[in-house]
Amino acid sequence: MNKAARMRKAFKDMCFSGDLVNMVVAPNALSAKIAEKTGFKAIFQAGYATSADRLAQPDRGIADFGLMSDSAREIINAVNIPVFIDADTGYGDEQNIERLVHVYENMGAAGLFIEDQTWPKRCGHMDGKTIISEEAMVSKIQAAVNARQHDDFLIMSRTDAYAVTGLQSAIDRSRHYHEAGADLVFVEAPKTKDDLQKVADSFPDVPVMANMIENGKTPLLSNEEIHEMGFTIAIHPNVLVYTTTYSTEKLLRDMVELGTTERQIDKMVTFPQFNHFIGLDDVNALEEKFATAPIEL
User: Fold this and answer.
1) Both 233 and 282 in a single domain?
2) pLDDT digits (tens, 9 = 90+) for 168-187
3) Of 91, 129, 149, 216, which residue is most buried, by most CB within 10 angstroms?
4) What's the pLDDT score for residue 294?
């Protein structure tokens, strides 16, 4: 079994195991590798973090399929744990969705979600969202399910209807998306614990995801609370972007004001530690194994 098949099967087993799948969004390959080394069993690649990391731009539909898929490929190649993908709205009609499913499946992703926002979309916790018709989204889900080549590649439906037409509409839409073939369900940005609970209770036999954004619209809960409510997946999408921004700004202010990194040096890994972490020892060993004798001139 190759890596892609192993990652798809591992992620599907996690989602249907009854245990909580705890995922963090990795903005780039380095953060993905850190997540893997610190014990995460699966990670997410998403638009907010990718837009911030690659473009220094907000999640407002600026990161297109080309940029998102390039970033996903780098992340997947950097780790040996499943990577789940934010496919936004599918970047077009059913033919575009068929193409993106093939691209992500072939590069080794474990699955993806598609949302029912209009394009250009925006982060689910931003104001001003609009949504497509339920019928149009059902067609997108059906196209994604029909396009996949392996049953272990999971399709998640995401609805942003809560902010536009209310909780019951979001639940009803998600039921219809599941009936259309979505394996997993995601209702974005409920504003209360009671509404989160209603979402979980509405899908007792379907893996459902909860999205935890610091200072977002949804109450910030612990993984234990999320699991007790009945959610199967917990996603932490922005914590690495926010932490990196905070610590980087703090360091750079010191460098400007003090002319030294001395006050921050105890918060850094060392030169040897970092080289070891990113695999310099392995690269050196490979070079030594295949090195040829120097050519005499």
Assistant:
1) no
2) 999 999 999 999 999 999 99
3) 129
4) 62
